[in-house]
Amino acid sequence: MKTSDLALSRFHNQLIAGDQPKRPEETVRRMGAIQAQDYLGALWAVGLRTGNSTQSDVEQAIASGRIVRMWPMRRTIHIVHRDDARWMHALMVPRLLENMGQRGERIWGLTETILERCRNITARALTGEKRLGRSALYELMAEEGVDTSEGRGLHIMARLAHDGLICFGPREGKQPTFVLFDEWVPKGQSMSREESLRELALRYFTAHGPAQIADLGWWSGLTQK
Questions:
Q1: What is the DSSP letter of 64?
Q2: Which of 6, 33, 69, 141 is deepest in the core (most CB within 10 A)?
Q3: Hey, is 103 helix, strand or coil?
Q4: In terms of Cα–Cα distance, which of 17, 214, 16, 189 is closest to 90?
Q5: Is 90 exceeded by the pLDDT of residue 57?
Q6: What does the pLDDT read at residue 224?
Q7: What pLDDT, on the 0 to 100 scale, is given for residue 97?
Q8: What tens digit of pLDDT does each residue of 59-80 get?
Q9: Are 117 and 165 contacting, i.e. CB atoms less than 8 angstroms apart?
Q10: Rounded distance, CA 35 to CA 39, Å?
Q11: Are the C-beta atoms of residues 47 and 54 closer than 8 Å to each other?
Q12: Do residues 77 and 35 lie in contact, with contact meaning Cβ atoms separated by under 8 Å?
């Protein structure tokens, strides 16, 4: 395949050229996952691929929970469709947890006992479809003797998200909030590991191809095996 043909094919597959979905959640479902470390950049990435959409359209899809900002792969924040959030988390996150636990304890002294305290604090604060920003949750943890300074808080929040306890909710002003994953994301139909792998590969190659298995492995954080 010529380089020019390869580029054109990817433009179409990534919905940058050609026919586009009409709603942000349709775009996100087609793409599988869209990187969202930078919030405004993520809004632009979804809007660029959605016909006649505005920033408000994309933010409303997030605020209503139709698309979910979470950590499904590579310890990196992505936007996914709400129907994909659970199976993606179950497929890609478990292999990251052991490394996160070792790193958290080695660098910040975050033992499992401390993390369990953080889980309990966070669950109590958010139960009942409540939402709180990072600073408010840090204050609650500090009241119970948990130090969140010098990067510890960021690691704690990422760990709670990887544990499946929290994900991002709507923004309040310019600040993100957190909600309980189980309250925010519908249960949906469960899938086996083989079904999840098949679906992930289908989404990736449909939206990012032409590509190779190694590319899928890098994107998802899964081993080629």
A1: T
A2: 33
A3: helix
A4: 189
A5: yes
A6: 81
A7: 87
A8: 999 999 999 999 999 999 999 9
A9: no
A10: 9
A11: yes
A12: yes
Check: CB of residue 165 under 8 Å from CB of residue 122: yes
What the block records as the tokens of 53 is 């959409």
| Residue 129 DSSP SS3 | coil
Query: What is the C-alpha to C-alpha distance for residues 85 and 123, in angstroms, rounded to an integer?
Result: 19
- Helix then strand count (H, E) for the chain reads 12, 6
Cross-strand pairs, 81: 67
Q: How confident is the model at residue 7 (pLDDT cuts 50, 70, 90)?
A: confident
Enter the pTM of the model: 0.92
Q: Are 166 and 126 in contact (CB under 8 A)?
A: yes
State the Cα–Cα distance between residues 147 and 56, nearest whole angstrom.
37
- Using CA atoms in the order 216, 58, 42, 38, what is the torsion angle rounded to 10 degrees? -140
Evaluate whether 166 touches 160 at the Cβ level (below 8 Å). Answer: yes
Give the H or E element holding residue 73: strand 67-73
Residues 178/157, Cβ–Cβ less than 8 Å? yes
Q: Hey, what amino acid is at 70?
A: M
Locate 60 and state its tokens. 């409303």
Question: What residues contact 197, with CB distance under 8 A and at least 6 apart?
Answer: 91, 222
CB 165 within 8 A of CB 120: no
Token output for 61 = 């899809």
Q: How many angstroms separate the Cα of 51 from the Cα of each of 59, 79, 100?
A: 15, 18, 39
Say how many C-beta atoms besides its own lie within 10 A of residue 71's C-beta.
Answer: 24
